[in-house]
Design a protein that fits this description.
This protein has helices at residues 8-11, 17-30. By secondary structure, it is mainly alpha-helical. 0% of the residues are buried.
């Protein structure tokens, strides 16, 4: 009944800042580095 519509502008949006930060933290942890995280939550 509903067709999925793809919007080009949505696909070009950057990831959220906090998602980018989490990716960087995970990458550093995988490299064996200690991360001090002062985030809340």
């Amino acid at each position: 009944m509903f067709d999925e519509i793809q919007f080009d502008k949505i696909n070009r949006l950057p990831k959220y800042l906090f998602a980018e930060i989490n990716d960087l933290k995970m990458q550093l942890r995988r490299e064996g580095k200690d991360i001090i995280d002062f985030s809340m939550g």
